[in-house]
């Protein structure tokens, strides 16, 4: 059995990560790669580390014949993605890695992304791609919206706690440390090596980061009331990885128990023994997410630390996991590689 | 005019940083350097970057004649420091960079450092070395206790807010990112390049970090009631620098105003315009501390970000600033070098 | 079909890398892991990134029952390795990752490693493990000696050129840049993060690096005369990877042709188009080696650049590749993961 | 006494480094800063680390009144610089940090830089700015051409050897490792953090790097015959610093003696004891250059290693040193800060 795969926007980091994962996938076969500005080039010019693979050259999306394609990953920039997906064949299975279909409420979309959505029909049918919590919907979906990488990390840490009612919903503080690849291969001054090296900086301060739209949507839905978290991401001098430190009010043991119960059957989410916390590097280049809980010296306070690789579990790995479900393949296919350490 | 300076424990990073700063100090002259395990070696063997300086060889403390010494910097490990300082000439001015004399209450010391203090007389006379807040006491002091580098950062950010009564004292969350040199030149597995590179990890989780003893002591004294903060330090892949993100409840404008007022006359503490935050690298290798305030989307919440270089303003720079006061030199002497960027 | 695998010395970086590779190997099953100082601990304590694997706890070598073991990887320190292997069952297949069995001549061994060999019988039977050049011998071997990671890199670049007679054997200059993990997890000052970060340093200068013993042995054998190269390794601020710049005298086109011909059928060795050179990161965490050739403005000079991952193709990957041959498994089994980029 | 200084092109890294050095210079006072694209902005917006300094806002060059200016540093891009300097007042002292006036021969300029020089009169009067070798000419010069940072490193290592006739001029191999800031603050893909981190790559391979024009000019002039070196620069994951490994044929002791003699009276150039080599970090953020020599196991071969900070001794520090000479100030003024380590 083989599944024909197209990747739209293959010249970015998530595109490259999809190819890396699919390279050892038992049933996926890449039949088309698009990269508008680099159309006509072989992939090995754009990403020489993929030189050993027999890949199709980059083409424009218009030049792809989707008739034989089983599933398309869409790794295009935000806004571009919705316009492209709107015009794809209506029966083509699609996993979108952009932000375009994450928010269900068109008004929330417009507020966080600064403009009206251009593909409301598709937005209405899109399933939110946080696999461990939307597994059945994803299995049946035609269009799955990959989550934000920060949003995934935060939800893995906090959804079970909100669902179990073990933390104070008005006192959630989330301090996130994110590696540079989350910002993609774009040419921005603060992403230059000389700027980021030996540096740490907060960004999207004060509750302005767009992934808050996902937290608002999801956490409020679980809680059955409006939940607003205080969230600050920081850019750190690393390439891959997210470490999220959550400061919560609640009983540490109950918190640990809620997480342990929620993920008892999950392959990719690992809850550490009480009192231990993961380090960012423990999941590098893998589809795993590690979570730890520590009680504070202040009674009724706890710290919940979650780590994942933004390009894998936070993006392309999640996408492959969802595609596996959509195509009826073993959910873990192509995703069991151990983290790369050191 | 010249001041004869001895540095005890010159083979560690803070020792090297003291020498770096004193190298261009207008009145300080290094007359003795101790380094027990490396006694007999020239400094250029231990730190080749100091090769151009005409420095005395390392000796044991016993071999130092303190009669002509105006001031000794003590950069020894914790616990060792108190035993050494107890036996130094009683009229010798001393700036200690260890943790040994930071806590005024012997019981608090015993609790945080796991044993009874061995130099209670000296502990009693020691002045807490946070220059901007203990300036007059330091000027008159014989023995000054350098603060913890994390403790300094947190106090620069929060003391004015506690003093002004503009934040909720029971809702302070401090998330700190610290570079590796704060842990010194010690051979520990987690400090290896291959371990820390591409990594972030929390440590002393759950309110167990010893610098909390300083926060407890100082914040409670200012507030006139017990204050307990929730504090998590993280080790980041950088050599120098601390970035501290403080999550507080209070009016952002009032918070910014309190900081601006507190530091209006300070040379080394710079409060950024409202809504701007500093990045860690902005103060590297300098004695400056930058602080910024951002209001949150949640009413009555704010984020206060402070950065400094742990080896300079957080340790050796602070020590030189205090020594300047103790010796009647211009407070900023030797400390006005601009940060190194990039 | 399943092959029972033991790893001796599993607590070092090459041990961890072996486990990472074997985790997705189709036939290898780890049945025993030794780690003398950490005997009794679960692997997840030593390497939390392997938490998701069902691995045996660490034991001492004495506690391993080798009767059911098909092959042992020996990732012990130099000198220890020969003593251990000498005492293993004589019919146990062994892939040694140490330096102990690389040099065929006992005198050469004694000269480079500073003492007489303790397992001369085993040394006599050991096959040099540079797979692409000793494939048939390895297939038939009981004991294979993994090459030095630097030695592998240099031989991949230069063996075909010496064999083809296209370069001046007396004018070979090899400038190597090596990441820190090549030095293992040992606690040495120069391997501390704060020392290596923002640094580059030459080591084993002047022709004293032990991998020169391998170059001498192999290059001289190919040339049929004594060959001595000028070789300087440099430690660079990276975790994984080697980039070797070879300066040679010869016709650039002939050099490129010799490499292209030599590796035409090789899966893991990729020769770039004439005039292109690889970057270190292009092969990270993979078993690939990329080689490029550029002619110089000076007639008759060329630069040959080779890159590989020291822990994978330079050590554990090579070891698995050799084990595959020894056990009659597909040579590439478990080794086709694409490089991790960025 | 005070000297009025203008910096043209202050928004790049060398501009920022000039300001950093001048910040503690005893006689230099910055009166004008230009930055065309950022004209109108305060320097603290472009470089927040300079926030504590009282600096003029950025203006366009046209808006600068040069009548009261004693000396202008020109830190503009190549090609732009010659057009600007051509139109400056003819009696204004200028230190140019670009490549525009380094090559004396207009044909060599055209060949290496791909076009005719636009300011031949100024090119004719320009003095090559390698201070230690052109000190008297610089003292008398109106226009000094700062050297390339790589070119400076190579000349410090090799000029004395060529002059003393102790090495084979036809067998010089120079392998250079350069940190990213040498490429400036420009937005290029290979300078992104995610690309350079955990990477090393050669560039301008095969004798195409423009600094070879300087080596050709200077080495040939010293030797009295044409000298062509084989030179490959590599980009390494660091911000500041150059480490150059020179492979030469000659007697190691004679080589060491020639270097020692040449730099016996120099403050900034330090030759290490025979057999020792410097590491890159030993001179970071300083105006020092360290050089070491090691003999090879091959008779008549040696390795000469030189390190400097590309932004300081390789560019802005050299420029200040030259300006000191041109203005009759102590040559070392503002330049004696010790290296920053770790």
From TrEMBL, chains A, B, C, D:
It is found in: Cytoplasm. It holds the Pfam family Semialdhyde_dhC_1. It catalyses: N-acetyl-L-glutamate 5-semialdehyde + phosphate + NADP(+) = N-acetyl-L-glutamyl 5-phosphate + NADPH + H(+). GO terms for molecular function: N-acetyl-gamma-glutamyl-phosphate reductase activity; NAD binding; NADP+ binding. Keywords: Amino-acid biosynthesis, Arginine biosynthesis, Cytoplasm, NADP, Oxidoreductase. Its main location: cytoplasm. Its EC number is 1.2.1.38. NCBIfam families: argC. This is N-acetyl-gamma-glutamyl-phosphate reductase.
């Amino acid at each position: 059995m083989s599944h024909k795969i197209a990747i739209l926007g293959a010249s970015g980091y998530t595109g490259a990560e999809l190819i890396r994962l699919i390279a050892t996938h038992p049933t996926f076969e890449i039949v088309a790669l698009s990269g508008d500005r680099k159309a006509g080039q072989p992939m090995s010019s754009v990403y020489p580390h993929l030189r050993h693979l027999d890949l199709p050259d980059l083409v424009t999306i218009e030049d792809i014949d989707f008739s034989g394609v089983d599933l398309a990953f869409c790794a295009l920039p935000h806004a571009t993605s919705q316009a492209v997906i709107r015009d794809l064949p209506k029966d083509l299975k699609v996993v979108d890695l952009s932000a375009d279909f994450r928010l269900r409420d068109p008004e929330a979309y417009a507020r966080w992304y600064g403009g009206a959505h251009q593909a409301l029909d598709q937005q209405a049918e899109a399933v939110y791609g946080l696999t461990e919590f939307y597994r059945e919907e994803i299995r049946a979906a035609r269009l799955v919206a990959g989550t934000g990488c920060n949003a995934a990390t935060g939800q893995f840490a906090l959804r079970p706690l909100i669902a179990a009612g073990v933390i104070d919903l008005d006192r959630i503080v989330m301090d996130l440390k994110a590696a540079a690849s989350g910002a993609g291969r774009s040419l921005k001054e603060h992403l230059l090596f000389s700027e980021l090296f030996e540096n740490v900086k907060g960004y999207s301060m004060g509750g302005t980061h767009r992934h808050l739209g996902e937290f608002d949507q999801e956490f409020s839905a679980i809680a059955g009331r409006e939940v607003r978290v205080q969230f600050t991401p920081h850019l750190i001098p690393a390439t891959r990885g997210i470490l999220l430190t959550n400061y919560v009010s609640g009983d540490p043991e109950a918190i640990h128990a809620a997480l342990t119960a929620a993920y008892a059957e999950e392959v990719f989410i690992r809850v550490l023994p009480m009192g231990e916390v993961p380090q960012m590097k423990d999941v590098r280049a893998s589809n795993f997410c590690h979570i730890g809980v520590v009680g504070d010296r202040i009674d009724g306070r706890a710290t919940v630390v979650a780590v994942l690789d933004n390009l894998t579990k936070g993006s392309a790995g999640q996408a492959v996991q969802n595609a596996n479900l959509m195509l009826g393949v073993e959910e873990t296919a192509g995703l069991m590689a151990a983290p790369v350490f050191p």
